[in-house]
Design goal:
alpha+beta
């Protein structure tokens, strides 16, 4: 399944800073309804994410009822993404 949506980048500080965008409600609804087909365990869902010209493989992370799209350094640096930015995400899950 493929989606495109816009979201605001937020930072979650831990041992290292992590950057995420939350998936919108219609994407969350689909992911929750098809979780058994999509997850490889612990509710984590493998995905391909594109922002601009950069695409990476990652895993969506469940958190407080929504899924978070991790924005890896390999995606953020070439696209100049930082905390608070609005980004357009192309998201692909499943076969």
């Amino acid at each position: 399944m493929n989606w495109e949506f816009e979201g605001e980048v937020f930072q979650w500080r831990g041992p290292a800073p992590y950057f995420f965008v939350a998936t919108p409600a219609h994407v969350d609804d689909f992911l929750h309804a098809h979780l058994g087909e999509l997850t490889y365990g612990w509710g984590v869902i493998p995905a391909r994410v594109r922002v601009g010209d950069t695409e990476v493989t990652t895993s969506l992370i469940p958190r407080d009822g929504v899924y978070l799209v991790p924005l890896k350094v390999a995606l953020r640096r070439p696209e100049g993404i930082d905390d608070g930015d609005a980004v357009r995400i192309s998201l692909r899950v499943g076969s």
